[in-house]
Amino acid sequence: MLLGAPETAESWCRSWRASLPACRVLVLLAATDTAAVPGISAAGTSPESRRVTAAADAELLVLGPTVALPHALPSLPAGVSPALISQVVLQGLGLHPLVIDLGCAVAPAVPHLRLPPPAGAGPARCLSTGSAMDRPRVEALLEQGRRWGLAAARSAPFGGPPLPLVLAECVPGGTTTAQALLTGLGIDSGGIVSGSLHRPAHALKADLVARGLAAAAARTPLPAAARRMPPDPVAVLAALGDPMQALAAGLLLAAAETGQSVLLAGGSQMAAVLALALALLTPELRPRLAALAAIGTTAWVAFESDSDLALLLRRVGRHWGIDHPLAFAASLRFRGALHPALLDYERGYVKEGVGAGGLAILWELAGRSPEHLARACDVACHELLGPPWAPPACPLVAPGSGDPLRSSDG
Questions:
Q1: Could you tell me if residue 404 is inside a domain?
Q2: What is the total count of domains within the chain?
Q3: How many whole angstroms separate alpha carbon 141 and alpha carbon 87?
Q4: pLDDT of residue 225
Q5: 114 within some domain
Q6: How confident is the model at residue 45, as a pLDDT?
Q7: Against a cut of 0.85, is the pTM above it?
Q8: SS3 of the chain
Q9: What is the CATH number of the domain that holds 147?
Q10: What pLDDT does residue 410 have?
Q11: Within the chain, which residues score under 50 in pLDDT?
């Protein structure tokens, strides 16, 4: 447990152990032009490659590591896509994800649900514009998420409680929109939000957020009395956010109404989703959501020295009167004789994404060991990438027979 009241955490875990085989897994793909800012993300080594990241990750998640993917995984500075971890868990637990495309530039070539406009109206604009999405799109996404959540509750078998829900995401540039959304909602998040880079780009994130806030304020200047009021969450989301945040928050609103348990599989991005939902809920429903929704992330995010998820969540909780937001860190670690691309996680690369941390927690709740998961990921990584590269052995050359490394003049 990373954060939360022990009795609440135990109750949450107990309910998930009992209903884990029936849980639903939603993978939300979204895009923001923020990902095109040089140096902002390692979910692909170039802005062009990051346009296909969500599609390729979804294909790996659904098809597995032994199939040629329709869209090649973008090259990374180090490591391997976290979708590999998620795929191993889903296959091992017999869970089947529903992939939802909220308007990515490239659609995944696997079965998925793609929302039509206005909800699925393409990538969000860069948050530095202060006009990331049009308000009608944000409202449509929030309402779509809430409708889906309410419908899921009504379809619970035999009139029982709603089936638990896992929310995962793939949004290149999403930790920066997360920081922007949190800042706009009044949460001091500078310097503690994680990211896909080896070292989070705190200065660049802060600059983009400041520019976005300034542009939004210039577009809709408020009188002094209005500036003293709490910010309008929908307006903040439209100015600075991304489509995943809106749909996921709508699902959380429904969960608070219906009593559905939710695992927010991710780190800083899911902290922003939780903050948004708390801002949209009435004060009476906020404690209920805090008991139903838990953030589940990897150890590489939870214990990263250059970010602080626990502090971020404590600030979110205090802002809306929640004493103990629930958060868990998976025990999965990559150590020993494993593929070097997995060992890169221990060096601070990649860290999280596509629900990897939350799904690794489900693996543990199912009674399986993190060591078993690490070994299964190693097998899958070899299937995906092949054996680690090694330079060819130098040929043995007899003295005086023309050593290719020796120049002709000695």
A1: no
A2: 1
A3: 27
A4: 53
A5: yes
A6: 85
A7: yes
A8: CCECCHHHHHHHHHHHHHHHHHCEEEEEECCEHHHHCCCCCCCCCCHHHHCCHHHHHHHHHHHCCCCCCCCCCCCCCCCCCCHHHHHHHHHHHCCCEEEEECCCCCCCCCCCEECCCCCCCCCECCHHHCCCCCHHHHHHHHHHHHHHHHHHHHCCHHHCCCCCEEEEEECCCHHHHHHHHHHHCCCCCCCCCCCCCCCCCHHHHHHHHHHHHHHHHHHCCCCHHHHCCCCCHHHHHHHHCCHHHHHHHHHHHHHHHHCCCEEEECCHHHHHHHHHHHHHCCCCCHHHHHHHEEEEECHHHHCCCCCCHHHHHHHHHHHCCCCCCEEEECCCCCCCCCCHHHHHHHCCCCCCCCCHHHHHHHHHHCCCCHHHHHHHHHHHHHHHHCCCCCCCCCCCCCCCCCCCCCCCCC
A9: 3.40.50.10210
A10: 33
A11: 392-393, 395-410
Query: Among all chains, which residue has been given the structure tokens 């680690």?
Result: 388
- Sign for the CA dihedral angle at 369, 375, 376, 378 comes to positive
Domain that holds residue 351: 6-220+227-385
Distance CA(150)–CA(250), nearest Å, equals 10
Q: Which amino acid is at 191?
A: G
